Amino acid sequence: MAKSTTIPETMHALQAVKLGSPEESLKYVEIETPKVTRPTDILIRIKATGVNPVEAKARAGNLPIPLPMPRIFGGDYAGIIVDKGSKVTDFNIGDAVYGALSVPITANGSCAEYMLASQNSGVIIKKPDNISFEEGAGFGVAMITAYQAITVLGNLPKEGAKKILVIGASGGVGTYAIQYAKTIPETQVVGICSGRNAELVRSIGADRVIDYTSTEAMDKLVKDEVETYDLIVDCIGGDDYYNQLVNVLKKKGTFATAVGPTMHIGAEKVGLFSGFMMGSTVLGRKLFGSRYYQVVIYLPWKKMATDINPLVASGKIKTVLRDDQIFDLKDGVQAHKKIESHRTVGKIIIRV
User: Where does the record place the Enoyl reductase (ER) domain (predicted)?
Assistant: First the structure.
């Protein structure tokens, strides 16, 4: 099939030219448009891309991995296929798709007008008609993280009533975790967030919301609900919530964290010593903790198509979007500054 449109020789992109602050690192540039060269290549005209904390942490130079510059961050995306290789048979030119690259801090990501994907890397799914490109771009890292914490690591009872507590329920992972948990039969879901976001968290399915800024509410949770929950999904990290809440889990309950034992890990530079200390803490909790302790370190991308997309298509899981968290590509610096504030509600999206 012929290309759906004339593909320009150059495109605009949000390119990281050095490690550092958003203003120092990110530049709105015009560069060569990628081309299909391999039989499994899929060229996508990006309509929207999601921003995840890992991208901001990598851009800042806080992760202990080499990142040659320049590069284009962005792993989650939604757009339209405009060209493809000869071995791509599951998709046609003109298909609206959404998905995620297997490496969200790849060198040639989705913060650009065009992006090369592959049917063998990450996940690419035909976009249901009931969601916008902006909504589609929100799924990916955050949604599959919630899935991994709940279904793969959660060790939930196979039958009967279940109870899940979500810490950080109004954030990107948290809003998906609340909704996904409510699709599990006989499951009660309680969210922890600030009082100003309580109504939002209720509106996406939480049976109850606890305001973490209320000492009285948190103390009541700890005192009255000992050995009540089957699973805690932690989207914040750190020692405080773990130490405070681990005993509200049942004896065979699981504390599954999307972050780890350091709050907002990567917000500051992760050095050799701090990395060693985090690893030691995780190992200690796994071996000697009073409850099961799990850290999300693997994302089962194939489950997006089989287990998540049907829920998206049926409207059971939606991306929480706010107008003040949708930015144009040329304003990507502001998107990165927003995600570094740790005060986001739902997803941050860059519209391309």
Answer: 21-350
